[in-house]
Amino acid sequence: MAARTSKPSGRSAPVKSAALAWNEIRPAPVVLVSGTEGFLADRAIRALRDILTTEDPSLEVSDLDATDYAPGALVTMASPSLFGEPRLVRVSNVERCSDQFLADALDYLQSPAADAYIVLRHGGGVRGKKLLDAVRAGTSGAIEVACAELKRDSDKYDFAVAEFKNAGRRITPGALRAVLAAFSDDLAELATACSQLIADASDEITETVVDKYYGGRIETNAFKVADSAIAGRSGEALGLLRHALASGADPVPTVAAFAAKLRTMARVMGRRGPSGQVASAIGVAPWQVDRARRDLEGWSEQGLGVCIEVLADTDERIKGAGRDPLYALERMVRIVSSRGIL
């Protein structure tokens, strides 16, 4: 059975503890899983359930919704059962909790039940701040697990690297870049793609293997369109764009892909030094610095500025300011393909 943190004997003020990463979750009387990244939060909660089930297969799992809460339900679910099985109570929507839940949770936190583990899933915001502060202070051995959205490309790169490393599988740098190019917009899809490659590929995972599974997606991916345009291949870029849109691609992520690459180019332009040093300074992976430097060949600072302005205009047009999103996208592709020469 999982070891429990002993309860404090008095009411002395607890010391605020640092939040754990999503993959560092461990058993505690109360576990706050906070942050906007739902995929990582779900994975962390599953990991805790697996830990507890391994330690005692008789674990009893219950679920509560904090928005539709019956008074006393938390204490009832956490109370010892007839046969003394450990209990895991997963509480969702704490960021929208009722006043009654908040009151019950604060009372429970002062005296948690033995062999019970309460998981509070809070998706962000200030609702329930008093409860959050109490958990973050480590009251009765409570801990916080932070699941912030992975926004930086370097964070997504590290996530994918860890997926293959933890599975004991090797993937070539080119194959890893291809997977990230195809799935970096959605962390859940990225994790699924990594899992499929890990499960199905028998040897080292190469670009050929990735192309076998996801070649169609990669070929019509927004980043492929952006790569062709940035390289000056206007006809190829327009063809990929039309194929992607005909296959159901959303114009918004397409513009976002262009923006991600051009802004990285802008941040790398003019910087000297090793790729790792530059990458650390601007918050990307070293391979992205190398790629941006290659992409910048033939570009001027003025042309890059023009294209970034066109991106902002295109973004407005496809979100309602213009009547023809396809025209706006094709205009953007042509201007980027010309490296900002209008």
Give a quick set of tags describing it:
Rossmann fold, 55% helix, 342 residues, alpha/beta, disordered N terminus, six-stranded parallel sheet, 15 helices, Zinc Finger, Delta Prime, domain 3, 6 strands, 3 domains, single chain
SSE inventory with pairings:
Blueprint: E1 20-21, E2 30-34, H1 38-55, E3 60-65, H2 73-78, E4 87-92, H3 99-110, E5 116-122, H4 129-136, E6 143-146, H5 153-166, H6 173-183, H7 187-200, H8 207-219, H9 222-230, H10 234-246, H11 251-268, H12 275-282, H13 286-295, H14 301-321, H15 325-337
Parallel strand pairs: 1-6, 2-5, 2-6, 3-4, 4-5
- What is the typical, i.e. mean, pLDDT? 87
Uncertain regions spanning at least 5 consecutive residues: 1-14
Shape: elongated
**CATH C-level category of the largest domain:** Alpha Beta
DSSP helical segment count: 15
Strand content: 5-15%
**Which CATH architecture of the largest domain would you pick?**
3-Layer(aba) Sandwich
Major sheet characteristics: 6 strands, parallel
Spatial separation of the terminal alpha carbons = 69 Å
Number of strands: 6
